[in-house]
Specification:
Shape: globular
Distance between the termini: 40 Å
Number of helices: 10
Strand order of the largest sheet: 1-5-4-2-3
Number of strands: 5
CATH class of one domain: Alpha Beta
Helix content: 55-70%
Order of helices and strands: HHHHHEHHHHHEEEE
Structural class: alpha+beta
Largest sheet: 5 strands, mixed
Length: 279
């Protein structure tokens, strides 16, 4: 029984590892697609954010040996054959685990094919008015499927923080900014390599001015609030997911708009539609 529990734990961990790796790959892909070819500053910032995400993933799973799950599944199959005559009941359970593993592999292959073939709109080649409209239509469609609607946030440099604060009750925008800045100061060694300007000045401006936030600030917000955050985009791909695994609260869902305003990127909040508000 103990061996079965150990095997199930390894398989569960492998499933979580593959799921998070798939989400990371999707996030990286979407971030790369958000780069304007002529915007070198944006590209540098996105490259830094991608590096931070990848390093955080590696650090979170540094204890995990993917090969051990393959060995475990192989051992299950071998033990199943050896015990065929003497332990038919155990053999049946092991065959079930083996079939479960094969189904999981097949499911992941199908999902990979879907992801690879998924049509992504090339917004950059469209006129400004059309790409803005198509982006909004895509975002609204995704929200509708979730029983959500858009809650507009003022475009004043605070939109990322305001879109999050709109869904919590115990902080205002300035307080959240100050907490994020303080977290950056306390974890300087973790984040300084990804900030391409004076680190102390960056933290100071983040706390006191209406400077834009990005992927790093979203990660820290999730840690401070102990809530997962999902960012819905207008490109038809899966939302960017910044997880907080131990949280029992539903994720904070916000929207990212690249083409809504001429002066740059923007975040809006979301809310339940009236017909779903009582659920």
């Amino acid at each position: 029984m103990a061996e079965n529990n150990s095997t199930e734990h390894i398989e569960d961990e492998a499933i979580r590892h593959r799921r998070e790796r798939r989400e990371l790959q999707s996030t990286v892909q979407q971030l790369k697609k958000s780069i304007n070819k002529n915007d070198k500053t944006r590209k540098k910032k996105i490259d830094s954010e991608i590096k931070a995400l990848e390093e955080a993933f590696e650090k979170r799973w540094e204890h995990f040996n993917e090969n051990s799950t393959i060995t475990t599944q192989s051992n299950i199959a071998t033990d199943s054959i050896q015990s065929n005559e003497t332990l038919p009941e155990t053999d049946e359970k092991q065959q079930h685990v083996s079939r479960k593993a094969r189904r999981l592999v097949n499911k992941e292959k199908r999902q990979a094919e879907i992801d690879a073939n998924q049509e992504v709109i090339d917004y950059d080649s469209q006129p400004e008015a059309i790409r803005s409209r198509n982006e909004s239509l895509s975002i609204n469609e995704q929200l509708h499927e979730r029983g959500l609607e858009l809650h507009s946030i003022v475009s004043d440099g605070n939109c990322l923080f305001a879109s999050i604060v709109n869904q919590i009750s115990d902080l205002n925008v300035r307080q959240l900014r100050e907490q994020v800045a303080e977290y950056l100061r306390k974890h300087r060694n973790d984040y300084e390599p990804f900030i391409d300007t004076d680190y102390d000045m960056y933290c100071e401006k983040l706390a006191k001015e209406n400077v834009w936030g990005g992927q790093i600030e979203l990660q820290i917000c999730a840690k401070i609030l102990q809530r997962s955050i999902e960012i819905i985009q207008g490109n038809g791909n899966e939302p960017i997911k910044i997880g907080y695994p131990t949280s029992s609260e539903p994720p904070i869902i916000i929207t990212y708009h690249r083409y809504l305003y001429a002066n740059g990127e923007h975040y809006n909040s979301t809310m339940r539609t009236p017909e779903n508000d009582d659920e």
